[in-house]
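Appendix B. Chain record.
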Amino acid sequence: MDSKGNVVLIGMPAVGKSTIGVLLAKALGFLFVDTDLIIQAGEGVSLQEIINTRGVAFFRVVEERHICGLDCQRHVIATGGSAVYSARAMAHLSKNGVIVHLDIDLQSLEQRLEDIGNRGVVMAPGQTIEDLYNNRRPLYLKYGQMGVDCQGLTPDQIVGRIMKALRSLRPISNPGVEC
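Structure tokens predicted for this chain:
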């Protein structure tokens, strides 16, 4: 992995991107950034408020704008689960980073997302967690340059697996759509 590169975490809501991200940043000696927090700070309101008042389509535009505005090196970046809907955002993140897909099974995900109405999860009206999972998982598999099955693992074990995989990587160049 390029010593100036970032590590970008993608995956379903509640898979542990922020928790793993903080621990991974500490292990790598990197800084940590959560794109959901950047969006909230930049917009001055919660993710859920943006979704409730402006809608899912508007939120995706805002998310893409904030992600494409990131300009950092040696960061672990935890993205919102919906970041993969934007090819531009994913191309921007992969220009200077390794994309790591944190994976979990649907049953575990449903247990973790009991408070979905307050989490700022980008879901269409009437969409179920299963629908969301089936819609997003192919995108995570498409964009993830490496994947970690998080099922039954502690955060420290997940970080260990990511660290091991990162050590085996060569510098990665990902030409793509510019932001």
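Further analysis of this model is presented in Appendix C.
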